[in-house]
Amino acid sequence: MQIPVIEAKGLARRYGSFTAVSDVSFRVEEGQTLILIGPSGCGKTTTLKMANRLITPSAGEVFVEGRNVRELPETVLRRRMGYVIQSIGLFPHYTVSQNIAVVPRLLNWPRARIRERVGALLEQLGLPPGQYADKYPHQLSGGQQQRVGIARALAAEPPIVLMDEPFGALDPLARQQIRRDFREIEELRSKTVIMVTHDIEEAFEMGSLICLLDKGAVQQLGRPEELLLSPANDFVQAFLAEKAAQLEFRAHSLADVFAQLEQGDGPQGPALEMPPDTPVLQALYLLARQGGQGAYGRTLHYGQWRWFTLEGLFGLFRQMLKRWND
Questions:
Q1: Which of 35, 83, 88, 269 could disulfide-link 207, Cβ–Cβ 3.0 to 4.6 Å?
Q2: Dihedrals φ, ψ of 109, to 5°?
Q3: CB 244: neighbour CB atoms within 10 A?
Q4: How far is CA 136 from the centre of its chain?
């Protein structure tokens, strides 16, 4: 069996007679994003902080690439883990480039390498270096500050990135945009990410695995579609119920509904081609922007083309909604 990048076994944290976290276990492979979610006070942030020893577990172990974190010096461990928090925590007296370069400088990277790395990250995050490198945090919007915080977490090329409510302080529109930008960062596709959020839509949009906690205990751990279609208990179903129809659309891709799409190349005229892993909800959004009722899309899966219209996808939506309500 492949050694996971990060693994927790039986994590617990007690404060006197109060148990904040009880018997939490998970495995996260390279390139996966594990979302920790649940009601306020469920233990998700405590669990995240035990991963890099900001909080010491009362019981249980954490392993990074097969090594027990207790065996690693704290400075070595934390430099292998980028950390992004809601409050961002930029140094106000440092410029953008100086904030991003903090850890590489501690690691004694050559100046030229630091300069190249800072510039590359700013470009990836939509902050052109010529325009933003010499600005100070107070000169940036909240969304721009959060991008700088993400760049700082990635600067030293850590294999693991921990994120604690990273977009929680942003307004809804800024949150949606930065989530889209975050997913587009090429190097994040090889990173192992553990992220805390209270936003169920954010969890389903960004997570490859979701760990739903309540009162410090794992209620269900699995892929997004597993939580939606096979909830482990009444708590899981109730937690997801309000967003169920929309979330089921997020969890399903065009590949999942491929058999229900129309066969062939589609009607005459330009088609909006989408990869088979496009979420159904995103496909609807793209078709609506393309022209609504007159637009159609198509996807190639296992060498076969199928096509769909906005109305057809909405028909699938109604079927999903009926199945959930039944």
A1: 35
A2: -65, 150
A3: 18
A4: 27
CA–CA distance, 268 with 68 (Å, rounded to integer): 60
How many residues make up the chain in this entry? Answer: 326
* Single-letter code of the amino acid located at 55: I
CATH architecture of the region 6-243? 3-Layer(aba) Sandwich (3.40)
What distance in Å separates the CA atoms of residue 299 and residue 253, rounded to the nearest whole number? 11
* DSSP bridge partners of 21: 13
pTM, two decimal places:
0.76
- CB of 308 within 8 A of CB of 297? yes
**H/E element holding 8?**
strand 6-15
Buried residues in 269-296 as b, exposed as e (16+ CB within 10 A): eebbebeeebbbbbbbeebeeeeeeebb
Q: Are 179 and 206 in contact (CB under 8 A)?
A: yes
47 vs 10: CA distance, rounded Å? 11
Helix (H) or strand (E) holding 23: strand 18-28
Q: Widest CA span of the chain, in angstroms?
A: 70
Question: What are the domain boundaries of the chain?
Answer: 6-243, 252-325
Rg, Å, the chain Cα set: 22
Per-residue pLDDT for 290 more than 80?
Answer: no
CA distance 251 to 205: 8
Q: What is the DSSP letter of 184?
A: H
Nearest to residue 180, comparing CAs of 167, 169, 190? 167
Q: Which architecture characterizes domain 252-325 according to CATH?
A: Alpha-Beta Complex (3.90)
Q: How far is CA 188 from CA 78, 107, 110, 121, 193, in A?
A: 18, 21, 24, 11, 8
pLDDT for position 3:
86
Question: How does residue 278 score in pLDDT terms, banded at 50, 70 and 90?
Answer: confident
Topology alike, domains 6-243 and 252-325 = no
Higher-pLDDT residue of 296 and 170 is 296
Query: Residue range 229-241: average pLDDT?
Result: 87
